[in-house]
């Protein structure tokens, strides 16, 4: 959803990425959902709103009080439309956005780089996420972060590694069993889960089954 939300090039993104998505999305950028046996069309903003509601619920369980005001993080490369759409998602979730900060700045905060001893430091933040690779230079000055240079690939992330593994195994399975499996959502979902597990294992070991 993050690749689609407020994105002027969303259709191109769908063309490039939809191969192993286990949901359907139409040319008006509406996701087809089966809710209580009925097909409903919902916008990426509404899907993001649901995710935000779930996150807020988890956070509320920890702090034991209601949360209304939030600070959202967005990729450093997000343009105004993408930022607006993200804020809209928060509003649909009934939340008030105090501020938007960039994800690399949030990472720098999380690692304590806002402390005085890091004043006047340049950081290189390398963030290989699920959907995007962001390589960003953040300038720290008196606890304030400024993104001064952005690089990376907005269409490269862990999900592409998953897709590469899927391509590999779908081919083997279809040849071995002489059956097409790509139309079967359940099988594809199961295979995807296995591919992700395999990828995670291969981070720590030379080989995995
Ligand atoms: N041990 C691991 N080895 C390899 N990949 C991993 C490992 N643990 C997590 N990942 C992959 O990292 C990705 C998720 O990363 P992260 O949580 O940073 O993404 P995100 O912030 O949700 O995505 P994005 O920033 O692109 O929106 C997933 O593709 C996941 O499979
Ligand atoms: Mg991320």
TrEMBL record:
Protein name: Heat shock protein 70
Gene3D superfamilies: 3.30.420.40
Statement: the UniProt record of this protein carries the keyword Glycoprotein: no
Keyword Nucleotide-binding: yes
Keywords of this entry: ATP-binding, Nucleotide-binding
Pfam families: HSP70 (PF00012)
Family from the record: Belongs to the heat shock protein 70 family.
GO MF terms held by the record: ATP binding; ATP-dependent protein folding chaperone
Source species of the chain: Acrobeloides nanus
SUPFAM superfamilies, alphabetized: Actin-like ATPase domain (SSF53067)
């Amino acid at each position: 959803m993050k690749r689609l939300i407020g994105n002027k090039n969303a259709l191109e993104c769908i063309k490039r990425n939809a191969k192993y998505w286990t949901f359907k999305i139409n040319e008006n950028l509406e996701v087809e959902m089966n809710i209580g046996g009925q097909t409903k069309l919902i916008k990426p903003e509404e899907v993001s709103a649901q995710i935000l509601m779930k996150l807020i619920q988890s956070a509320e369980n920890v702090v034991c009080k209601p949360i209304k005001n939030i600070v959202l993080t967005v990729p450093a490369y997000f343009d105004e439309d993408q930022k607006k759409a993200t804020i809209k998602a928060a509003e649909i979730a009934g939340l008030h956005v105090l501020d938007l900060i960039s994800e690399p700045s949030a990472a720098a905060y999380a690692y304590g780089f806002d402390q005085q001893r890091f004043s006047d430091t340049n950081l290189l933040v390398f963030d290989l996420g699920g959907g995007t690779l962001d390589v960003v230079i953040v300038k720290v000055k008196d606890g304030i972060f400024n993104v001064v240079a952005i690089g990376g690939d907005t269409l490269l992330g862990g999900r592409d590694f998953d897709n590469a593994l899927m391509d590999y195994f779908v081919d083997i399975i279809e040849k071995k069993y002489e059956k097409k499996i790509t139309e079967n959502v359940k099988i594809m979902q199961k295979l995807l889960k296995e591919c992700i597990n395999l990828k995670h294992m291969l981070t720590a070991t030379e080989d995995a089954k």
